[in-house]
Design brief:
The protein has helices spanning 38-41, 44-58, 90-94, 101-120, 147-159, 172-175, 182-198, 208-212, 219-222, 229-237, 249-260; strands at 5-13, 17-24, 29-36, 68-74, 77-83, 88-89, 133-136, 139-142. Helix 2 (44-58) runs antiparallel to helix 5 and helix 4 (101-120) packs antiparallel against helix 11 (249-260). A hairpin with a 4-residue loop joins strand 2 and strand 3. It contains 11 helices and 8 strands. The strands form 2 sheets. The protein has a 5-stranded antiparallel sheet with strand order 1-2-3-5-4. A 3-stranded antiparallel sheet has the order 6-7-8.
Length: 261
């Protein structure tokens, strides 16, 4: 473990590596300590690429983005020190069913503001999904901007085996390996919005043909009481062509709010 941190418990293990709850001893503040997989830490070229992207993400300062406090390298590995956020992920919240429309809009507006700010700084999330959004009361925060995707791409390059991201939320152009811009995050936000309102993702299997044909049930058919106007707003967010989507995350979130009012 990096010096100056006391590990309290293991929070989980995933594609990025192991995540610990820890205490910054000097500042006496709780943090989330992520130890990156050895495949990245032990490869000088990939470690350098990863650190460059991590430093770019660490420069993001926004109330709806989980901050990277610092990056540590030592003989024990490569560690990212994240702000420790209370609450639960949207994925966990969805385990209790769809969100009421007003609650869904409140969360989506905050996520959209985080995305638009990151886009203005040249950073694309590339792996937005309910599991990467923390909610505590009425406050939402987005995690892992670009970081999780960089890990997946690095592992793919090193192993020569394709590492799949999260197809259920992934824009078609990203899944096909094309040029990815802010529109890819708008697509993912649209998929998240659909799930918050319907309790299920529009493309649960991530099937590319279904995305290309916009083959998903109107959310107004799945959740009684939702106006049909919401379907058109979601359909535009989930357009297979990037240029046909809403021009920004916030323009989508505000249109969705109007359709639900």
């Amino acid at each position: 473990m990096p010096k100056g941190f006391q590990v309290l418990r293991t929070l989980g293990q995933g594609g990025m590596g192991i995540v610990y709850e820890a205490m910054d001893v000097a500042l006496q503040r709780p943090v989330a300590l992520k130890k990156l997989r050895a495949e990245i830490a032990d490869n000088a070229r990939e470690r350098g690429r990863f650190l460059k992207e991590a430093r770019t993400v660490a420069a993001l300062k926004h109330p709806n983005i989980v901050a990277i406090h610092s990056i540590h390298e030592d003989e024990g590995g490569l560690f990212l020190v994240f702000e420790k956020v209370a609450g639960e992920t949207l994925h966990d919240r969805l385990g209790r069913g769809p969100l009421p429309p007003a609650e869904a809009v409140a969360v989506l507006r905050q996520v959209a503001q985080a995305l638009d700010y990151a886009h203005s700084q040249g950073v694309i999330h590339q792996d937005l999904k309910p599991a990467n959004v923390m909610v505590s009361g009425d406050h939402a925060m987005v995690m892992d901007f670009g970081i999780a995707r960089r890990v997946a791409e690095t592992l793919s390059a090193l192993s020569k085996v394709e590492v799949v991201g999260t197809p259920a939320y992934m824009a078609p152009e990203q899944e096909l390996g094309g040029r990815v811009g802010p529109a890819a995050d708008v697509f993912a936000l649209g998929a998240c919005a659909y799930e918050l309102l319907a309790g299920r993702a529009p493309f649960p299997s991530g099937n590319m043909m279904m995305k290309a044909q916009k083959s998903f049930r109107p959310v107004s058919e799945l959740t009684p009481g939702l106006p049909p106007a919401v379907d058109a707003v979601l359909t535009r967010a989930l357009e297979p062509e990037p240029g046909a989507r809403w021009p920004s995350a916030s323009s989508f979130a505000e249109a969705l709010a109007r359709s639900l009012s």
